Amino acid sequence: MTDCKISVVELCIFALMDSGFKNLLHKAQLDKEDVKRLLSAQGADAERLLQRALEVKLSHLDNCVHLRGLIEYGNTCEKNCLYCGLRSDNPKVKRYGLTDREVLSCARLAHELGYGSVALQSGERSDPDFVRRITQLVREIKKIDGGSLGITLSLGEQDEDTYRRWFEAGAHRYLLRIETSDEALYYKIHPKNGTHSFRRRIDCLESLKRIGYQTGTGVMVGLPFQTPDQLASDVFFFRDMDVAMVGLGPFIPHPDTPLFRFKDLIPSAKERMDMTLKMIAVTRLVMPKINMVAATANQTVDPQGREKAILAGANVIMPNLTPEAYRESYFIYPDKACVKDTPQACKNCLDVRLAAIGHKILYNAWGDSLAFTAPRRKV
Ligand code: SAM
Ligand code: SF4
Question: Greatest CA span in the chain, whole angstroms?
Fold first, then answer.
């Protein structure tokens, strides 16, 4: 009898907790404690969170997915991030750089496939030759079919003049992840030798916004020493920076990097994936109109990772267009997904996989972020 009474009380408590969680999912403005509670959701609550994020995405952005044909321009890097296989101190990397012809043929292929946009990504370089060549390449890509391709750049930290040159040449989106918005954690995953500065990273994001780029940032999820509190702060960093795009992906330990020695301290691949999905979902609730990338890292830790990210609120995919001969050298982390897929096979695969989850690719469109508002210019 007593047992029975207790379970009725328990049931009432569960029902109250349940309605509390559901209310949270519909709350107009989430605060940090709310976000922490959402990120700690498990089981049915976690499913409800993802489901709610999908509803929010569909109501603001419909079921369209935008593509950016990814061109991995080169793997030479001046930086030494403690997590990335391309870091300058990694002697095992066979360094490469695409020729201008190769880049332009990738861009033409993106156009032929109807991708609408390309994303040019590489290790960080700031030498004059690099800056000049990127400027010229952006101009040349803009000439394809009268400027029909949108251009995203992800070329690391640069001075404001460089960002402006590339913008004036025709690039209009820029991705620069903050990696973590927690300064102390930032210096645990980057060397403290003056070449990596948390302040400079933020200054770069501010420069990009000032110039008029649709600016994207993001973090890795499941880093050594990362806490749920820091992840919740990351979401508010995105909101307070008022970025137009966010990229979130699980951290993947690379054996030739210093952070690898902490691999046993980090959550399992499944836990990192689950947390990434919750981060995507919560970010969608807080910033309903932004563009959010279903990063390749999701697909790398889970064969269904890209679809799961789309169903949790992401709306952008970056299929790889890098010529096959170079792909294995862009070895950011091990077992990168889709490294061997040809562009045509990748396109067909995406069409089928996205249709299976009720989404469709919006071909031949730039797919700009609806959250973007151009900065006011002085008259
Ligand atoms: N160099 C540019 C930069 O750092 O912004 C662009 C290229 S960098 C390889 C692109 C992204 O790869 C980084 O922002 C980082 O989040 C991600 N990345 C690097 N190493 C990673 C790892 N081990 N696991 C998951 N993501 C990683
Ligand atoms: Fe270089 Fe970017 Fe890798 Fe850092 S994350 S080492 S800047 S390629």
Answer: 81
**DSSP code at position 321:** -
Question: Looking at ligand 1, which residue's alpha carbon is closest to its atom 13?
Answer: 177
Helix (H, G, I), strand (E, B) or coil at 103: helix
Measured in Å, residue 111 CA sits from the centre of ligand 1 at 26
> Cα–Cα distance between 177 and 284 in angstroms, integer?
17
Of 84, 158, 179, the one to substitute when testing ligand 2's pocket (max ligand atoms within 8 A of C-beta) is 84
**Of 62, 378, 68, which Cα lies nearest the Cα of 245?**
68
Q: What is the pLDDT of residues 26-47, one digit of tens each?
A: 999 999 999 999 999 999 999 9
Ligand 2 pocket: which of 72, 73, 124 to mutate (most atoms within 8 A of CB): 124
DSSP code string of 208-247: HHHHT-EEEEEEEES-TT--HHHHHHHHHHHHHHT-SEEE
Pocket test for ligand 1, best of 157, 177, 208, 252 (most atoms within 8 A of CB): 177
Place of tokens 């999820």: 221
Backbone torsions φ then ψ of 279, nearest 5 degrees: -65, -40
Kindly state if the Cβ of 259 falls inside 6 Å of ligand 2: no
Half-sphere exposure of 279 (CA within 13 A, CB side): 34
pTM over 0.90: yes
pLDDT tens sequence across 69-88: 999 999 999 999 999 999 99
The CATH number that domain 33-361 falls under is 3.20.20.70
Ligand 2 pocket residue status of 87, Cβ below 6 Å: yes
User: For 330-375, how does the pLDDT look when each residue is reduced to its tens digit (9 = 90+)?
Assistant: 999 998 888 888 999 999 999 999 999 999 999 999 999 999 987 7
Distance CA 229, CA 82 (A): 22
Q: Half-sphere exposure of residue 354, counting CA atoms within 13 Å on the CB side?
A: 21
Q: What are the sequence ranges of the domains in the chain?
A: 33-361
